[in-house]
Amino acid sequence: MLKNKVNILLMVFCWTIIALPSLALDFEPGKYEIISKIDMPGMPVAIPPQTIVQCMTDQDPVPNSNPENQDCKIMDIQQTKTTVSWKMECIQQGQKMISTGKMIYKGDSFKGTIQTNSGNMIMTTVITGKRLSDCD
């Protein structure tokens, strides 16, 4: 279930960029190390950060995921040269989840937060990305 939620958050980020107007972000394409840290109050044990390495391009400057069985609707998308923010509603296994997110780009790095409310559970994900090199 946690992996599904992480996939949803990364998917949100990916869909957000696809749906945005063509305003260039302050972003340098290449191979990125992306770290996601989830905070879920009330969990008895902290969830360890997840790290992936991914090639990111001007056309796809966001972490990718492939969630299944998602019914999501993105709204309230706003973008500047350095920031992307959005709101999204998803239905997962009959339960409505509302997420709001904001990512800030700075050349060879990005950082941001996504807050997801799923009924009585609120989850905050902090995502950071740092360029490692050119893509292979």
Characterization of this structure:
The protein contains 1 helix and 7 strands, in the order αβββββββ. It has a 7-stranded antiparallel β-sheet with strand order 2-1-7-6-5-4-3, covered by helices on one side. Helix content is 13%, strand content 51%. A hairpin with a 2-residue loop joins strand 6 and strand 7. It is globular. The termini are far apart. The chain has one helix spanning 2-19, and strands at residues 30-39, 50-56, 71-79, 83-92, 95-105, 109-118, 121-133. It has one domain (2-133).
Low-confidence stretches: 6-10, 14-22
Report the β-strand fraction as a percent range: over 45%
- Count of individual helical segments: 1
Q: How many whole angstroms does the radius of gyration measure? A: 14 Å
**N- to C-terminal separation?**
32 Å
Residue share in helices? 10-25%
Order of helices and strands: HEEEEEEE
Strand elements, count: 7
Mean pLDDT over the residues: 79
How many discrete domains?
Answer: 1
Q: What structural class results from the helix and strand content? A: mainly beta
Main β-sheet, spatial strand arrangement: 2-1-7-6-5-4-3
Report the major sheet.
7 strands, antiparallel
Task: Give the overall shape, derived from the CA principal axes.
Answer: globular
